[in-house]
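To illustrate the input format used throughout this study, we show a single complete record. The first block contains the structure-token representation of the backbone; no residue identities are included at this stage. The design step must infer an amino acid for every position from geometry alone.
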């Protein structure tokens, strides 16, 4: 059943619409080869750094266009999406005559400036890539929002995101949970990491499932260092009135601090200690203090309440990543 606007199209446009509606799937030749690139995009979003997200988004879109044998597009990642003039805009595809097509994506929500959840960001990315594929792969003369278009978008998402990965709760879901639920999530994580690592040898834990994906050891080091940043942010907020908050630089730290050479048992011990200190600090805070906050250079104002919700989501995401790395899956 065509959407309502179909009746307003010319006969030529309706023919394009019907052709688009008939095609319900875009098959990737080897979707598993793109899973490490999807993981890089997830990690980039957790960094909250626009330049990092830009690089990961470029790789993701280039991997898709290369896999499907279509011309590349220019990519631009912007900060907070506009909301007054552009409604619910998350992404934009433009293809001007004589110019390379361009995809623009907004990595933050308009009003609260939160990083867009991974699934939302990837679906937006695939939506805009879908417009490019209408022209470059399917040979359509125009790109319409048809039922077939949305099914093609979903088919790409399902190939790129295994079912287990799709079950990870979004950041928004953690914002909607109670403080007790978030605290319980944070308290469980060190034991879950320890159980996952088990008695495996350090050499095994240092092995990457693919050249671009982190090893189990690198994931534990990342959790440890992010926990330190979290503690610094909470302490800074409590000691000052709306202070500037320290940033995290995951990719740079992994290189400069040589995560791959760290002792995983020692990294886990440090993470466990820092997480315990974080929980002790949070338990002593009266409810009103959870609304105290500071200014993040990219995300705007962040309250302690928001930081805790994001950390709970961060734990979920990297526990799932750790499980896959231990199984040799990127």
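Output of the design step:
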């Amino acid at each position: 059943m065509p959407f309502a606007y179909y009746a307003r199209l010319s006969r030529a446009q309706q023919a394009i619409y019907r052709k688009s509606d008939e095609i319900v799937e875009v098959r990737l030749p080897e979707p598993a080869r793109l899973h490490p690139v999807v993981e890089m995009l997830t990690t980039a979003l957790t960094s909250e750094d626009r330049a990092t997200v830009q690089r990961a988004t470029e790789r993701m879109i280039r991997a898709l266009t290369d896999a499907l044998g279509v011309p590349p597009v220019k990519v631009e990642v912007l900060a907070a999406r506009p909301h007054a003039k552009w409604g619910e805009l998350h992404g934009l595809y433009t293809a001007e005559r004589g110019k390379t097509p361009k995809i623009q994506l907004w990595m933050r929500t308009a009003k609260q400036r939160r990083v867009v959840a991974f699934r939302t960001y990837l679906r937006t990315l695939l939506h805009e890539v879908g417009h490019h594929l209408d022209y470059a792969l399917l040979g359509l003369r125009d790109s319409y929002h048809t039922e077939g278009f949305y099914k093609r978008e979903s088919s790409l998402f399902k190939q790129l995101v295994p079912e287990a990965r799709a079950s990870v709760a979004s950041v928004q879901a953690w914002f909607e949970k109670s403080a007790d639920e978030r605290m319980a999530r944070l308290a469980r994580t060190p034991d879950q990491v320890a159980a996952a690592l088990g008695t495996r040898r350090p050499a095994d834990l240092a092995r990457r499932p693919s050249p671009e994906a982190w090893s189990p050891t690198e994931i534990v080091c990342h959790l440890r260092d992010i926990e330190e940043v979290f503690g610094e942010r909470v302490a800074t907020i409590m000691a000052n009135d709306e202070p500037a908050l320290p940033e995290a630089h995951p990719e740079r730290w992994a290189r400069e601090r040589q995560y791959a050479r760290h002792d995983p048992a020692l990294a886990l011990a440090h993470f466990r200690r820092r997480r315990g200190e974080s929980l002790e600090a949070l338990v002593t805070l009266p409810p009103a203090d959870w609304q105290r906050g500071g200014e993040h250079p990219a995300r705007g104002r962040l309250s302690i309440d928001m930081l805790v919700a994001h950390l709970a989501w961060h734990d979920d995401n990297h526990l799932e990543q750790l499980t896959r790395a231990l199984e040799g899956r990127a």
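Structural context for interpreting the output: The first strand starts at residue 74 and ends at 80. The two ends are 40 Å apart (CA to CA).
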